[in-house]
Design goal:
single chain; alpha+beta; Inorganic Pyrophosphatase; 5-stranded mixed β-barrel; two-stranded antiparallel sheet; about 30% strand; inorganic diphosphatase; Pyrophosphatase; metal-binding; inorganic diphosphate phosphatase activity
Length: about 200
């Protein structure tokens, strides 16, 4: 009996051991860290690949979609250059929000997502873009091909979530959602993040 290809003897690191996907940047693999039901901010631990509790959310706001990142991406110089309000990238994997009709309640899952747009986000003068995608073959949203194919309320909720999820009473907000862009710009950001990753970490 032979093992299937690829075969992982050990669990691959979600950031470095998985791929962005053979159809990237149109369709990407997304690793989900947070579901719409989470009131705690979880984040991948960059060293071990395990999920780490980043912080309990201070406000009552919950993510309006699945939230995670695209493997083998890195927000470096190229991603930063695409954001006129940023001086650099945030040196994290590229974030992605995935819309689905059916509730997905589990994190630490991988899925294929069709890219339709994104939010230009700046945090402390660092580019922190949020790619917006739909679950591929989703019964309700699988036909979306551009961000305008999604209801305005979905984008409004995403903007509001990121505008407020770090707010602390009495303190200023260092994060700003500067705009919404379509799939062409989103694909440029993904390509830039893949190139930034190769420069920072090399190829497999």
């Amino acid at each position: 009996m032979s093992f299937p290809s690829p075969f992982y003897r050990w669990r691959p690191h979600p950031w470095h051991g998985l791929e962005a996907g053979p159809k990237a940047p149109e369709v990407v693999l997304a690793y989900i860290e947070i579901t719409p039901y989470d009131t705690v901010k979880y984040e991948i631990d960059k060293t071990t690949g395990y999920m780490r509790v980043d912080r309990p959310q201070r406000s009552s706001s919950q993510p309006p979609s699945l939230y995670g990142f695209v493997p083998r991406t890195y927000c470096g110089e190229r991603v930063g250059a695409l954001n006129k309000n940023a001086k650099r990238g945030d040196e994290d994997p590229l974030d992605i929000c995935v819309v689905s009709e059916r509730p997905i309640t589990k994190a630490e899952v991988i899925l294929d997502a069709f890219v339709v747009g994104g939010l230009q986000v700046t945090d402390n003068e660092e580019a922190d873009d949020k790619i917006i995608a739909v679950l591929e073959n989703d019964n309700a949203w699988g036909g979306a091909r551009e961000i305008s194919d999604l209801p305005d309320i979905i984008i409004e909720r995403l903007r509001h979530y990121f505008d407020t999820y770090r707010l602390v009473p009495g303190e200023g907000n260092t994060l700003s959602v500067d705009g919404v862009y379509g799939r062409d710009q989103a694909r440029k950001v993904i390509r830039a993040s893949m190139e930034d990753y190769e420069e920072a970490f090399g190829t497999a």
